[in-house]
Specification:
117 residues, mainly beta, four-stranded antiparallel β-sheet
């Protein structure tokens, strides 16, 4: 049974930082491309950052470039999203996403990030 469990969300002030984690089980983690998505109230879910299976390539949405960093630990089966210089527009539910080499897709349950003073 595949499980992606996010943690690290919460309330943070503008310009603050948070680090999200996503622990995977039930999958061969090192063969999955991992991503973070987010969904703000009233908006569609959008991709935030992606990292290849070996961690060699990363991609970011323009809105988070230079502020967010995605990384992974294939020993701990965990992907991270370091979020710095947070803005109110970053407020959303953040979801962990996995895509296997065979095209199987898995989602986490999401973690709320609220940026507010």
């Amino acid at each position: 049974q595949v499980q992606l469990v996010e943690s690290g969300g919460g309330l943070v002030q503008p310009a603050g930082s948070l680090r999200l984690s996503c622990a995977a089980s039930g999958v061969t983690f090192s063969t999955n491309i991992m991503s973070w998505y987010r969904q703000a109230p009233g908006k569609e879910r959008e991709p935030v950052a992606t990292i290849t299976d070996d961690g060699g390539v990363t991609n970011y949405a323009d809105s988070v470039k230079g502020r967010f960093t995605i990384s992974r630990d294939n020993v701990k089966n965990t992907v991270y999203l370091q979020m710095n210089s947070l803005k109110s527009d970053d407020t959303a539910v953040y979801y962990c996403h996995a895509r296997s080499l065979w095209g199987n897709i898995f989602w986490g349950q999401g973690t709320q990030v609220t940026v507010s003073s």
